Amino acid sequence: MPELPEVEVVRRGLERHVVGATVLGVQVLHPRPLRRDALGPAGFAEALTGRTVSAVRRRGKYFWLALEETDALLGHLGMSGQMLLQPPEAADERHLRVRFHLSTGTELRFVDQRMFGGLCFAPGGAQLPSQIAHIGRDPLDPEFDQAAVGLRIRRRHVAIKRQLLDQGLVSGVGNIYADEALWRARLHGERRGDRLTRAQVEEVLNHARAVMEAALEVGGTSFDSLYVNVNGESGYFDRSLHAYGLEGQPCLRCGTAIRRVAFMNRSSYFCPLCQPAPRVTRRGPSPS
Q1: Which domain holds residue 183?
Q2: Do 99 and 207 fall within a single domain?
Q3: List of long-range contacts for 213-219, beta carbons under 8 Å, 24+ apart
Q4: What is the SS3 string spanning 47-100?
Q5: Does residue 270 fall inside a structural domain?
Q6: Are 27 and 96 in contact (CB under 8 A)?
Q7: Same domain flag for 96 and 155
Q8: What confidence tens digit (pLDDT) does each residue in 237-248 have?
Q9: Residue that finishes a domain, picked among 132, 162, 194
Q10: What is the per-residue pLDDT for 153?
Q11: What is the CATH number of the domain that holds 215?
């Protein structure tokens, strides 16, 4: 699933190419991407037609196109969503779901193979759509309050990796960058927040920011053709990973084989030597 760096790459591409463009028409080729839109396909198309894009913004893994600084087109890429800019004569992509005809003479196309992503019209959402107001700020946000987030982490009896993935606490961090930040901080993902020091929490949040900034510089992480930027290009951060997806390969710090374990219907990757698992406290027999 695209995480913060990948969505930010898409946001920047859209910002370069669609700000100032007017939506001349909308063609909904499949209704599923609009499943959370109260207007339905016809109402969605009508609400967007004639509107001019004034900005492109993001919070966590969501992005939105501000429409004349009043309403917004809110989007989430899901597992395989793509926002592509194409000339009108370009052949339709196999999984093209929604097409926007722009006044610039190009088409903005929402392509989604697995259809876990989606779009919706957000009235009054130019600054922040109400649908995502509950989502926390992300580590790249200038207003991200790291001290406050760190304090919340240390007050919770919850494993640190689960907290990094809690989008209400800190947004944008997904499985890939959580594993990479934890590897850099030498912390096991099952370490509980209330068992960590302030310095340890600060370090892992700093690494989460640093690893996502590094990924952003090379266009994000692409393991397959499902994540691309608006021009259809892949990112290259997969070549710089230290833990995620490297099961059995030697840790670059100590040489121990990277291990993979099941985690929330996904996987966690870590070095068992550099990132020792927390001790399991066993209760003794009950007094008679």
Answers
A1: 146-241
A2: no
A3: 213/5, 213/140, 214/240, 215/5, 215/6, 215/177, 215/240, 216/5, 216/8, 216/9, 216/140, 219/9
A4: HHCCCEEEEEEEECCEEEEEECCCEEEEEECCCCEEEEEECCCCCCCCCEEEEE
A5: no
A6: no
A7: no
A8: 455 789 999 999
A9: 132
A10: 98
A11: 1.10.8.50
Question: Which two three-digit tokens encode residue 52?
Answer: 């001019």
Per residue in 109-146, pLDDT tens?
999 999 999 999 999 999 999 999 999 999 999 999 99
pLDDT in tens, 39-97: 999 999 999 999 999 999 999 999 999 999 999 999 999 988 999 999 999 999 999 99
Nearest-angstrom CA–CA distance, 265 and 131: 26
> CA-CA distance, 73 to 179, in Å (whole number)?
32
- 223 is written with which tokens? 């393991």
User: Exposure pattern of 127-142 as b/e (b: 16+ CB <10 Å)?
Assistant: ebbebbeebbbbbbbe
* Measured distance CA(28)–CA(225) in Å, rounded: 23
Residue 53 to residue 65: CA distance in whole angstroms: 6
Catalytic residue IDs: 2-3, 61, 266
Structure letter (DSSP) for residue 232: S
My answer on whether 74 and 171 are in the same domain is no
Burial of 226 (0-12, 13-18, 19+ CB in 10 A): buried
Whether the model pTM is above 0.90 = no
Which H helix or E strand runs over 111?
A: strand 107-112
**In this structure, are 172 and 127 located in the same domain?**
no
Query: At 264, is the secondary structure helix, strand, or coil?
Result: coil
Report residue 209 as tokens: 């920011």
